[in-house]
Amino acid sequence: MKDLGDIIDACQTDEEVTEEELRYAVCAMNSIITLNKGSLDNLVKGEKEGRKGFIYSAMFQYEERHKMMHRALNKDPKEWLGWNYDFKNIEYVNKMKRLNKIFEE
Fold first, then answer.
1. Confidence (pTM)
2. pLDDT (tens digit, 9 = 90+) per residue, 12-33?
3. How far apart (Å, rounded) are the C-alpha atoms in residues 73 and 84?
């Protein structure tokens, strides 16, 4: 399987990728979005509530997101996600179905 960055590049340049590569890439990008949202939430919470500490530091969040993106783009998305977040893991799939039902209500 290609690295996430290579899958993205292939899609942008009309090169072939497999369905499995696309599915894992979408799942990886969803995880990246979720992690980035958590980082922004921490920054807003820190600013609103005057909290201190590295978790509320813009520089810390920037550096951590930069490292995370570098790791994600240079690894195949299945490996980066790991088994706990793999759509072939029935426990994960069932958890996501339960969560989706909650959000639909």
1. 0.86
2. 999 999 999 999 999 999 999 9
3. 19
Residue 87: closest CA among 12, 4, 28, 16: 28
Q: Is residue 51 helix, strand or coil?
A: coil
Q: What does the pLDDT look like over 28-79, one tens digit per residue?
A: 999 999 999 999 998 888 888 888 887 888 898 899 999 999 999 999 999 9
As a whole number of angstroms, the distance between CA 3 and CA 1 comes to 7
Spatial distance between the Cα atoms of 58 and 39, rounded to a whole number of angstroms:
9
Picking from 53, 3, 56, 47, the residue whose alpha carbon sits closest to that of residue 25 is 3
At which residue do the structure tokens 């009309």 appear? Answer: 14
Query: How many whole angstroms separate alpha carbon 4 and alpha carbon 30?
Result: 12
The label of the residue with tokens 């790991």 reads 82
Whether the Cβ atoms of residue 76 and residue 10 lie closer than 8 Å to each other: no
